[in-house]
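Researcher: I'm preparing a figure for a lab meeting and need a structural model of a single chain. I don't have an experimental structure, so a prediction will have to do for now. The sequence is pasted below. Please return the structure as tokens so I can convert it later.
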Amino acid sequence: MTASQSREQHTLKTWPFNWCLIRYRPWPYIVFCIFHMSFFIIQVIPGLIEKAVFDSITGAAPVAIGLWALIALYISVESSRCLAAAGLGRRRHQPLRS
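Model: Understood. Here is the structure written out token by token.
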């Protein structure tokens, strides 16, 4: 018998694995889903602000706030989105120091 025959490879399909994770800790999964969906929804906001800017420039539709306020809003939304994206990449624990 060779080494490759003696080792059996045990695999777990993706759906059962995810279901086990959801059943094990449902609240962190729910929080993760909410933040993950909000991250993608937030990416729509700059497009809506840009639409309002161009509408105010062309006069296509009345805008309740001024052009400079829309530009400031766009910059603040984009900077907060970039900070949120940078925060997603941070590690939860610091490396050990010797």
